[in-house]
């Protein structure tokens, strides 16, 4: 059923009540929220029409994964010790209960040694249609700022992040990986697209981007899943400066496996004043969106035999780093297209580049 049909159906449902109430003498201003509430219960059609498609790297081994499966294969820990006293089993419908346990200190930690390469870390490779069969791996969050300005966040989940090779050593591996595109719409038309890249990213005008039909194309970096607007090599040694030549830290992208995240997605609206999330479909779990903790293991200490650091004492050079926080920590009510980590250099590119 198309989003536009849902909108029409919603109006047909609410309009009789609207006119009956109007005939009963209720003033129009009191009736308008009734229409607005019903219209807000359907995903805006432009959010799906312009949803990105993703090219995964041809050599990728860590694919998008099912978010619920991450809970099946992890336990919550603080300071490397399992916590107790929460509702079990943990699900996407009760995960935010962990916030009561000093939530920002909670890490969803793998139940098995990840150096044994458990199969669940590999995620689900998209099939010939681009679908991650059996895995819900994209979560769309819509924030309506008013005056026709709407931000749609397309959040991509991967069970594992491979950080790459630096000076012949693995660096920056971690359980759990969140990346995203954000499209800013004005009166239903896409204007600017944000591409998350590690802790930073880039913004491009919609018009300059590569597209499939009208849908913008994202290239996912090998292992790290950082999002880029073009295929090729991306040296990101210097934050916010992506160079086309290989450097100390390089992501590689190409047209390997096409992933259409829209085929396995949940959709939500976000109310920033109340900091609440409302699923567009009542069957979508939403409690998990408020979880404040990390979606992976805490960085292993140097005493752990699995761990090493290229530069002793510099945790950023460690083989295994901490898992990421989720959508709650991704600045869903940003003023600029760029998050605050990029505000000092929030350039919106009008031409494609690395």
Automatic annotation (TrEMBL):
Keywords: Signal. GO terms for biological process: protein targeting to vacuole. InterPro entries: Vps62 (IPR009291), VPS_Associated (IPR053102). GO terms for cellular component: fungal-type vacuole membrane. It holds the Pfam family Vps62. Residues 1-23 form the signal peptide. This is Vacuolar protein sorting-associated protein 62.
